[in-house]
Design goal:
Low-confidence stretches: none
Largest sheet: 3 strands, antiparallel
Oligomer: single chain
Strand order of the largest sheet: 1-2-3
Number of helices: 1
Distance between the termini: 32 Å
Order of helices and strands: HEEE
Structural class: mainly beta
Strand content: 35-45%
Helix content: 10-25%
Radius of gyration: 15 Å
Number of strands: 3
Length: 66
């Protein structure tokens, strides 16, 4: 389990490099949990908000082993 910025009383840091500043545009001040579902050929990562609404989702395919 991973806790986000502020979860443990640690204040979020300001972005210092240009890449981080660009990524910071996509931040949101919402509570969420990441749910990881794994199968033999893929992993699906979903971020769910407090009401169960899906905030984000990504899927990673695992190449077949030969």
């Amino acid at each position: 389990m991973v806790f986000g910025n502020g979860a443990l009383g640690v204040e979020p840091r300001e972005a210092v490099c240009q890449e981080s500043k660009e990524l910071a545009k996509f931040q949101a001040n919402v509570n969420y949990v990441n749910v990881v579902t794994m199968t033999p050929d893929r992993a699906v990562i979903r971020s769910l908000g407090r009401d169960g609404q899906e905030l984000d989702k990504t899927e990673i395919q695992v190449p077949a082993l030969k």
